[in-house]
């Protein structure tokens, strides 16, 4: 998708400098990826306690994969 957006130059430059990302396009792509990752983590955290799981983690950790 192509779109035109006006961005704050200082914010873009500082973000690129601190992240070592070299182009505004890569910076925006990374920012969108990180934003989605944060939203998905929030969704996952909201599910805590809603799923019942039965199993023995100690056994799973010590048993060889079959």
Written overview of the protein:
The chain is elongated and about 55 Å long. The longest helix has 23 residues, at 24-46. The protein has one domain (1-51). The protein starts with 8 loop residues before the first helix and ends with a helix. The model has no long low-confidence stretch (mean pLDDT 92). It is mainly α and 66 residues long. The protein has helices at residues 9-19, 24-46, 57-62. The protein has 3 helices and no strands.
Average the pLDDT over all residues and give the rounded result: 92
Number of helices: 3
How far the N terminus sits from the C terminus, by CA atoms, comes to 45 Å
Which word captures the global form?
elongated
Counted beta strands: 0
Structural class by secondary-structure content? mainly alpha
Oligomer: single chain
The helicity comes to 55-70%
């Amino acid at each position: 998708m192509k779109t035109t957006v006006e961005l704050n130059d200082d914010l873009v430059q500082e973000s690129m400098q601190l992240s070592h990302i070299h182009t505004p396009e890569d910076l925006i792509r990374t920012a969108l990826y990180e934003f989605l990752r944060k939203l998905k983590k929030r969704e996952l955290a909201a599910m805590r306690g809603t799923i019942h799981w039965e199993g023995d983690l100690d056994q799973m950790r010590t048993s060889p994969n079959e």
